[in-house]
Amino acid sequence: MLIREFLASDIQGVKEFTDFAVGLGYYSVEELAENQKKSVAKDGSVCSFILVDEDTDKVMGLRLAFPPGNWDHGKGGQLRPDLWPTPLKDTAYFQSLFVSPSLQGQGWGPKLAEKSLEVFKKLGAKAVVAHCWKESPNNSSLRYLKNMGFKEITEHKDYWVNVNYICTRDGYPCHCTAIEMFLPL
Question: What does pTM read for this prediction?
Answer without folding.
Answer: 0.91
